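Q: what sequence does this backbone want?
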């Protein structure tokens, strides 16, 4: 393991820090550092900057669950539904599909939120890509036999990724 504590290593540590944070704008990076410094004792590691901006995996899953509840409120189990956050598709598919999850929520079953968070966190950890999931989730209503892409787009409820106060969504 390299030693980054000797003389002249500050530059190398700074390069590694900025390389790890490369996906962030300078404004986002500064905001993450400021947020961390409010509660932390030391200058943050890149992981702590990301956590200050995006929260934990469970925080991301909880924000996504709010999108699911909103879609259920708006369309029920009828579908089809398309979420901006494709990891929701991954979790819902593993839970038995849109109609099954919407039914369970309407019936006030206890398992849907817990299962959703578990599957959503797993999707984050394995880096699920939009190509890994179906473009929309079918409900009970189904689609007409000769439905084309325009018909499907018109019938599909598109749900944007909601935001939480102070946290950003990982999309």
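A:
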């Amino acid at each position: 393991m390299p030693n980054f504590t000797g003389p002249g290593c500050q530059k190398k540590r700074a390069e590694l820090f900025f390389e790890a944070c490369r996906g962030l704008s300078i404004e986002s990076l500064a905001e993450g550092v400021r947020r961390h410094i409010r509660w932390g004792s030391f200058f943050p590691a890149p992981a702590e900057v990301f956590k200050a901006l995006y929260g934990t995996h469970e925080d991301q899953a909880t924000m996504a669950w709010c999108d699911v509840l909103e879609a259920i409120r708006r369309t029920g189990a009828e579908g089809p539904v398309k979420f901006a956050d494709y990891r929701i598709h991954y979790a819902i598919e593993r839970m038995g599909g849109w109609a099954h999850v919407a039914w369970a929520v309407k019936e006030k079953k206890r398992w849907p939120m817990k299962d959703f968070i578990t599957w959503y966190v797993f999707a984050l950890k394995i880096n699920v890509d939009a190509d890994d999931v179906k473009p929309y989730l079918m409900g009970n209503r189904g689609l007409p036999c000769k439905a084309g892409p325009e018909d499907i787009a018109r019938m599909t409820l598109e749900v944007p990724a909601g935001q939480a106060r102070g946290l950003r969504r990982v999309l």
